[in-house]
Amino acid sequence: MYTLIKAPCISDDLYERVYDFCKKLLTLPKPYCTIGLDYAFRLKIERVTPGVLYQRMIISEQSLKSDPYPYQERVFIFADPDVLSKAVCNSLVTEAKAAQMYQNPRSCMCYVITRAVQAALGEDCDVESFQRILQNKPTDELEHCFRQVAAAVECTGSETNADRGRHAERLEKIYSMVLNSSAGGGSSPGGLHGTPLPNPNISFHLWTDEDQLWKELVLFVRPLSRTCEQDCLSQELDNFEIQDIVSDCDCCEQTRFSVLSTDSGIERDLPVAGEELLPPSSTDVEHARLQRKGGIKKKSCLLESMALLQNSCNDPGAKQSGKLHRKSDSNMVPMLHLHRLYTARIVVLGDDRVLGRLAQAYYSLRKRETRRVFLTPRLNLQFYYVPVMEGQPNTWPTQDHTTPGQMELCELAVYLGKADPWYESNINTLCHMIPKLATMPSSLSTHPMSDPFIIDVIAYYVRLGIQPVYFQIYTVKIFFSNEAQEPAEDVFLTELSAKVQDCKAPKDHMQTKKKTTLEVPGADLAVTYSKVLLSNRKKEVEVLLRSTGLVMKAIPSSETEDLACLNVNIAEVVKTSNLSGRSFSSATNKIRTRNIKIQSMEQRTFNLRLDKDFRRTYTNVVGVEVSPCLEPSYCLQKIRTMKFSLHEPEDVGLAKYMPKSLLLPINTFAGIIQ
């Protein structure tokens, strides 16, 4: 497909062969049928309207103004400075700037015009003369020509029974007008010429703020939404400024002032008819009014519900939350069509630690959108992951006092590589290559026109990586030994690890203690979990065991495992007796579950770490509760319906069609191939 977009002209015979191959893929299971359907649809459009795929890609990626095709895209690269070194970050910034150095709207408009005319006319087009005339035209004339070409291509692409001959006639008329407008005039066909495909609009960000992702998305959507008349929701949603959005969060809540009313509403409390009422002063009138500042204007509940419902229905269904699924093409209920004119492609660089931050940011964004819909009706979110790993991380030592291997920090990338061979060969190879390229002398300083390798691979990934793989986000509630301290709530994506703290006894107790007494390591833990059964029935299990620590893995160890469940490995302490006395050995107790509760039965506490990130470490923990993270919009709709049906155990209303679990989609080339 990439070759089809970049090639100046494709023969009809090649079109037929590729189209027949895509139709054969429709008889195969997913993801082959999904990919075949998508590519067959693109081929059919490109054959009737040559150059339409190239034109739409350039217009959306370069934010060119076009009324027939008003869609805009942007690639956001986020790198965690605590995970990647300064040299790697500087190298990526240099490549991103070099990729955008020679790209401007004028050259991109020339590319679109030349590509559309050459694709329609073929070898009958004098490309060199045509390009020279376009480059010498004033900007206003070039924009007028660009609008004509864009309108002609989109007109043919939107027709039900489009005719390729009529499309060629339209562009030939524009081609002749451009040539006749120059002093030289005339043309001499000189064969086909390739048209450059510029890299998309890429912005590089160091991830230093927790709300940075949400702020960048708001700044991307907000300026364009003020002038875009095609957005049917603009009048409904544009009633507040960015300052209002920022103040919507809990930490920025403004003070509200109110005055208690003295009117009891009882008739006998009214003044006597003959009693003269004194005219109130201006001060009394001012205080008698109910004053409120910083309030939120009530929006239409229908609009919010439909926006959240459509966003949810683009994800896997509620009844399928136990598996890793790709996107379903069937909508379960008819709904209002929301025109999402903007697409943000979020690319995160790093290991599993940066994915944990992405899960946190995505969960926070979904909660914001549930409280007040702003991005959901306008923005398509696409997530991409490029593993980058360098050096030895700061991790806890294991029982044999060795640090885990580096590939354990990229478990999600390893899983995606096993599931998708194209992801393995194109993206996972960058894991160690990017740090090596950062230490090498860059050719961009001496040859600015040279192609930046990393940016080219990322551009290829975001353009063709259209098959998402959904990963379950888990929520954890943490209880501390200090009862006055409020329980903490957090989320994780890949791993939760816990280690029991060593209990040091007082010196006087140690002196009176007999030498023959053997101290038992670990702590007694009460574990309650729901066992995963093939019949999908729930079975509650309660066990009491002694353990020194545990690890919960959320990423399947094999690509053939469909169930999205936690693999819990508990390091259990087993007491044994022999001739020399009592001794203790360790054994691994393996549990597969979706919900689990762990409570320490002693004074000993344990340390908790999420997603292998030392910055997300909790100490003095006595209990945890882990369960699949619920979609915030589902929770809101569930609360609304519970007001009217208190005794209904099943979901009713819109909640019945919304997914319960919050899943993080990571785009790949082919999804899960089994």
From TrEMBL:
In terms of superkingdom, the source organism counts as Eukaryota
Q: Which GO MF terms are attached to this record? A: 1-phosphatidylinositol-3-kinase regulator activity
What Pfam families does this protein map onto? PI3K_1B_p101
Report the coiled-coil segments: none
> Biological process GO terms, please?
G protein-coupled receptor signaling pathway
Q: Which InterPro entries match?
A: PIK3R5/6
Q: Name one GO cellular component term.
A: phosphatidylinositol 3-kinase complex, class IB
Per its record, how is this protein called by name? Histone H2B 8
Species whose genome carries this gene: Platysternon megacephalum
